[in-house]
Amino acid sequence: MTYCLNPNCQNPHNSDLAETCKSCGSELLLKNRYRPLHPLGGGAPGGSFLAVDEDKPSKPLCVISSSPIANNTTGSHFGSFSAFASGLDELGEHPQIPNLLASFEEADRYYLVQEYIEGKNLAQELAANGTFTEVKIRKLLQDLLPVLQFLSGNDAIHRDIKPSNIIRPVDGGPLALVDFSTVELHTSRTRVKPGILKGSAEYAAPEQTQGRAVFASDIYSLGVTCLHLLTGLSPFELFDVESDRWVWSDYLQKPVSDRLKTILTKMVERDLKHRYTIAADILKDLKKPALPAYTKTQKNTAATIFGGAAVAVLSLMVGHRVPSPVPYSTYTTTPIPVTQLEEIPYTLPKLDQSTPRNNKQVPPMRTLASTSGPVWSVAVSPDGKAIASGNTDGTIQIWRVNSGDFQIPIRTLYGHSEPIWSLAVSPDGKLLASGSADKTIKIWDLASGQLLDTLKGHSAGIFSVAFSPDSQRVASGSFDKTVKLWQINTSKDWRFAGNLLHTFIGHTQEVQSVAFNSDGQTLASGSTDGTIKLWNWRTGKLTRTLVGHNDSVWSVAFSPDGRTLASGSWDKTIKLWDLETGTSWRTLRGHGQQVHSVAFSPDGKTIASGDLGGTIKLWNSYSGCQKGTLKGHSDWVEVAFAAGGKALVSGSFDDTIKLWRLAP
């Protein structure tokens, strides 16, 4: 079909090879080369049309946009359009913006010919697949906010951001922003507009409807687009005129985090003073930990836990506290390229005994790898050759240490619909367990990436997963305040049937961490309630509750010999517990922010801890002295030892994974 672009034509549909319109007699081929096929959207007095460039042998598709010339005068008006086309040509340099192929005037109208990006727009995707999840909205923002940043940096305002103008390319690339017929360009002398098109009223910011769009107007439109995709309703239905407020959260079909709600609310503020003004600020807020709502726990004093009669006994147990250790070195160590992990000696420059230890420095740090987004969790295979990272977008990436290029994961695992909050590799190195905000645990074949089983039973997200020493069981700690134990049954064809063995109930708030001891029977769980509970996982019985932290316990780890438990807390300390007596025999202090993760080295001599500020500390597990402070991450960090304790892997919410060479 050939479509007539005369806006006054009563029957614009023509045959495939027609050259003049059978209805109005207008020439159908623009510039004697571009054949319009059908409208892509818009309407009088202009619109966008899919077309074919018949001047090229491959007959490529393109997009034609048109707008009327306001009057028949020449000179300044055409000069304005020429300046607009020149600016649009520069914008096409961005890979997510269509290239400008041609611009011209014909029959009292201006025409733009742009690159056609094959794919479905988000309005079509919404109609076909239903409302978007938080993961998809976050990915949308991560894709398009840099485009808005590019536009504002080039003094451009799109003015018509909406689902139908956002394309998901068939090649799997990032989302593309299309239809720049409404774009407003700010030059050094004046504003250049393409005509009288002003965008779609449903998505337009209040100031834009009054004829004075600003850069933040695009942020507003992108935010409203997200609201529409989350609810499936028209933006007009999501704003209560009587109360003068958005009510979109009342119509959510799928829950979203408070963090995302806060971001979207600020994006669609009608008052410019309260709205985001630059896209970079939104990207920064997106990368902050999207933790569930945190309620500070009451201090777990002996009086409140055991009653007054036990205070004296507890005082005797902890009265002779070992003084807090002091650091004997603080340095920034150098991460080693993963491709050289097995070739480079694991040594650092020895400290010069004549130089004060705290002043000794090591060469500057380098960043090793960037991921597709914030990293929630990391796990390392026992042989140290594979690293798994869990991401906010619900994917798991597998990085092979000796693959030759640590910048590219060898495999990406898809299956979860929400962020991956926890990962664990089985002691035999064959299996990977992933716990997600989507309330499920998935079991994967680490070598092939095959999904073997999905364990369902928790009523809320999974904060932590851990394998038993024999690799036959998985424990999971959840936001639903429970710990569950699962039997992993294997067969020759590696098909699984996960059976729930026990549900451990006792914590009064969320379970943040679980770990198995090497003794083959003890399971530890740390909770937001500030306690650590020890369970006999074979019988399902609670054997002991450890009390001492005055804030949430976010991480627990057993020493390799099974005698000591380390716990990291939001009270900014790490405590070491004697499992035989149940007492804390040392408290490690030095973190300036809440401790998020702890891990023992395979030889048990070193403890690594990461906090919410991105700082990693290394401790001598016997003396309690600080062995070093690793600087480089800018956001909260998870830690795991690799290569027999000679290296440390850290995954952070700053979108990076680092591998550190450690001193012997």
Task: Write a structural description.
- There is one protein chain.
- This protein is an alpha+beta fold and about 675 residues long.
- The chain folds into three domains: about 1-115, Phosphorylase Kinase, domain 1 (2-Layer Sandwich); about 120-285, Transferase(Phosphotransferase), domain 1; about 305-345 and about 370-660, YVTN repeat-like/Quinoprotein amine dehydrogenase (Methylamine Dehydrogenase, Chain H, 7 Propeller), CATH 2.130.10.10.
- It has nine helices and 43 strands.
- It has a five-stranded antiparallel beta sheet with strand order 3-4-5-7-6, covered by helices on one side. A four-stranded antiparallel beta sheet has the order 16-43-42-41, with no helix packed on it. It has a four-stranded antiparallel beta sheet with strand order 17-18-19-20, with no helix packed on it.
- A hairpin with a 4-residue loop joins strand 12 (about 185) and strand 13 (about 190).
- It is elongated and about 95 Å long.
